[in-house]
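Tip: read the tokens left to right.
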């Protein structure tokens, strides 16, 4: 799909379908931005009360012979509470409607939201909505009829007198949305294709293309460094563990303290000897969405040339119940010397993250953030509407939540009360890898805090409910969502803006 900015007043082309945002409290603002030929028909629809402008509503007005064949009025809710996510979803819904009607070209009018939000942000959200909703992973479909069409091949964003700033916003949004879809491509691969070694190869290839530094530590290096978590989880698999290390070092930056991103990469999680139930286990190929987010974010940050050093760490393993697999009751020693009693081999993500968080100490991070599909408790609590955040730094939490509101990848803060720490105190080791009772989200966060104390500013993101979707969503189909790529990129962009 080719996306471009056009001035409706000077453009000689008429798209087949036109999308216009309608506000619930100011429905008539949409009319003034429309071509005269269609204004009356839209005014009639608004006056009838059939189109109310409520958030998520889509109302079709057919206007044959006037230029566009159809105008979709897309509800944006109240103007005063407009958020970028509504714009993002409006663009996605317009593309979906145009695809269903087999239209080849569309235009989304942005004039109706002028003044409600910064236009550069509106353009970015619209591009993301169009690009991400068009994503498909059908490379293994052998019949063309089984491949869903992605929709229109031409998309225009209607805006009067677009300037250099607006065109730059379009170009940057294209980079970000394309990177999300690139991340989805490799993360959706089946586990027999995307093994730990092959995921490391994806990172190496990306780093070469984007001129990043990339090192991959194998089993021998992890053993030498005392990474008992990574070694323990991986020992039941025939595939060796990989610790991917990506470094982005922009030139001319005085403060070289990096943001360090750490992503859980379990390419398939059977639960190990603490075997998961069979139904739904196929979803466990997505237990590497944290690593995917980190790799994707490094790619986007490098392509956007953001002036903030960033390091990406991705411990990558496969958790299998082989003859050499880790057993419940085993005691391991992580890189910082802390001992862990493994009571459940299905609580493996925190074990590999522990070593990666310890490894991050050598970078003296400005901020240390880990991201993982970590606990079933998180997906039960929040579903796919939000991710959990726990942190040692209130300012970092606020920054991440702000970035999440901008990208629509919302975060909800959970407490790390000291009273909960008793729930992971082990009988025969320093700590144990599961809670003695409930409080699964927070005790997982407290476990990770034991290995991130070297960083003054640390946060943990649990994306168990948001990293992948069990059905089609407005911004993409069933499978990997790309959660974290845009969030981290926005977070780093906001840091850069303060310098």
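Filled-in amino acids:
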């Amino acid at each position: 799909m080719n996306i471009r900015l056009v001035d409706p007043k000077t453009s000689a082309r008429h798209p087949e379908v036109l999308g216009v945002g309608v506000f619930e409290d100011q429905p008539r603002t949409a009319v003034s931005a429309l071509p005269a030929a269609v204004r009356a028909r839209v005014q009639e629809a608004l006056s009838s009360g059939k189109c109310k402008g409520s958030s998520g509503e889509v109302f079709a007005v057919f206007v044959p012979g006037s230029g566009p064949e159809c105008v979709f009025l897309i509800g944006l809710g109240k103007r005063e509470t407009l958020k970028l996510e509504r714009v993002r979803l409006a663009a996605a819904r317009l593309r979906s409607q145009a695809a269903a009607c087999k239209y080849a070209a569309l235009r989304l009018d942005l004039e109706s939201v002028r003044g409600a939000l910064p236009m550069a942000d509106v353009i970015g959200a619209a591009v993301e909505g169009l690009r991400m909703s068009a994503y498909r992973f059908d490379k293994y479909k052998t019949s063309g009829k089984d491949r869903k069409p992605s929709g229109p091949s031409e998309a225009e964003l209607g805006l009067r007198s677009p300037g250099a700033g607006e065109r730059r916003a379009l170009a940057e949004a294209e980079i970000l949305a394309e990177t999300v879809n690139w991340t989805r491509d490799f993360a959706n691969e089946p586990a027999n294709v995307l093994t730990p070694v092959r995921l490391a190869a994806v990172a190496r290839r990306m780093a070469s293309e984007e001129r990043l530094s990339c090192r991959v530590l194998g089993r021998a290096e992890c053993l030498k460094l005392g990474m008992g978590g990574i070694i323990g989880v991986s020992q039941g698999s025939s595939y060796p563990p990989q610790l991917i290390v990506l470094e982005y070092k922009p030139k001319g930056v005085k403060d070289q303290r990096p943001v360090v991103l750490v992503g859980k990469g379990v390419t398939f999680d059977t639960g190990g000897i603490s075997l998961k139930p069979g139904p739904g286990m196929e979803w466990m190929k997505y237990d590497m969405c944290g690593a995917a987010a980190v790799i994707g974010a490094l790619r986007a940050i490098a392509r956007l040339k953001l002036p903030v050093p960033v390091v990406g760490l991705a411990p990558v393993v496969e958790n299998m119940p082989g003859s050499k697999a880790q057993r419940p009751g085993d005691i391991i020693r992580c890189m910082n010397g802390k001992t862990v009693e493994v009571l459940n081999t299905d609580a493996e993500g925190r074990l590999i993250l522990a070593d990666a968080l310890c490894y991050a100490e050598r970078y003296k991070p400005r901020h240390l953030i880990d991201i993982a599909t970590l606990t079933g408790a998180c997906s039960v609590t929040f579903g796919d509407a939000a991710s959990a955040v726990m942190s040692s730094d209130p300012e970092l939490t606020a920054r991440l939540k702000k970035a999440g509101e901008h990208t629509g990848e919302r975060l909800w803060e959970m407490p790390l009360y000291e009273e909960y720490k008793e729930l992971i105190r082990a009988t025969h080791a320093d700590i144990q890898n599961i809670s003695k009772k409930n409080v699964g989200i927070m005790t997982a966060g407290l476990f990770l805090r034991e290995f991130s104390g070297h960083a003054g500013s640390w946060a943990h993101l649990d994306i168990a409910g948001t990293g992948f979707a069990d059905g089609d969503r407005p911004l993409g189909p069933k499978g990997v969502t790309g959660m974290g790529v845009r969030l981290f990129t926005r977070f780093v962009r906001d840091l850069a803006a303060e310098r």
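Residues 2-162 form a domain with the Leucine Aminopeptidase, subunit E; domain 1 fold (CATH 3.40.220.10). The chain has 13 helices and 20 strands.
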